[in-house]
Amino acid sequence: MTKLRTAVIGVGYMGKFHAEKFAASGDAQLVAVVDADGVRAAQIAGSLGCGHATDYRQLLHRLDAACVAVPTERHHAVVRDCLEAGVHVLVEKPLSRTLEEADSLLDLARARGLVLQVGHLQRFNPAFQALAAQGGRPLFIDIERLAPFKARGTDVDVVLDLMIHDLDLVLALAKAPIEQVSASGFRVLTEAIDIANARIEFTDGCIASVSASRVSQSPVRKLRVFRHDAYVSADLQEQRLRHVRKGAEGDTAGIVESEQVFARADELRAQAQAFFQAVRGRTAPLVTGEQGRQALALALQVGRLVEERLARHGV
After folding, report:
1. What total number of domains does the chain contain?
2. pLDDT tens digits, residue range 279-306?
3. Does the pTM of the predicted model rise above 0.85?
4. Which residue, 28, 60, 135, 209, has most beta carbons within 10 Å?
5. For residue 47, is it left (φ>0), alpha (ψ between -120 and 50) or beta?
């Protein structure tokens, strides 16, 4: 089977990892890596045995698919150019800066019949996939994502940097429409929001509480889902699930606990392979552009509510 001709556009922190997965894939030929920093592009290309460039537009006629990992403010322009050239795209989250930009990309991808996948990496976490496969109506979803401060990613606030991952997970678990959203947060080490909490209420009564911080001491990725008679606690960092449920009638223990531990999975590799499969089959990817837009819409709403609250209180 002919390999897909690919490139990674933007080989900063995340882009470098994407390039490594593309280069190692049996489904793809990494034609080149692209970065505004020509020296960095050349170094990474040398280590991966591919070409390099500083202008992605010079390569588009040679590509079947591309990963876009440039800063968020450039997502729209770069993804648009790729789609207009007939190139399938995997773009890092968030899909774009605004919903107007997102809609224009979705319209273009549909018109050209191209795959547009958004890099919500946690969808490929085996613990989350096992939890989501259980089905059932969630009553309460509680997600906590804490990370130590890093200078990278501060071009956007913590909602678009970190929380958007978990907003996407909430939307994947809760099937009902959103009824109400409230949010709070604060600036700590940057001029943008560094810590935030959102409460999302759905029309079927489900409630989600989502917390994110990029100024914490240790990394934490916890997800808890409560249903009638049971709850599941997921440690997404360690890729394990803990189940607690009511025992059968007559069970003297009353409560039954169990744990699932998954073999360590390479989520980035799984994401790349899913992208290549969607491109080959011209099928919908696991995280579609439409789903990326839904997560972006909710993240922008949360960010706006936080800013409005800070303004009201003069913080």
Report:
1. 2
2. 999 999 999 999 999 999 999 999 999 9
3. yes
4. 28
5. alpha
Strand 116-119 with 230-235, pairing: unpaired
59 within some domain: yes
Which residue range forms the structural domain that includes residue 39?
4-114
- Residue 291 located in a structural domain: no
What CATH number has the domain bearing residue 176?
Answer: 3.30.360.10
Domain contains 167: yes
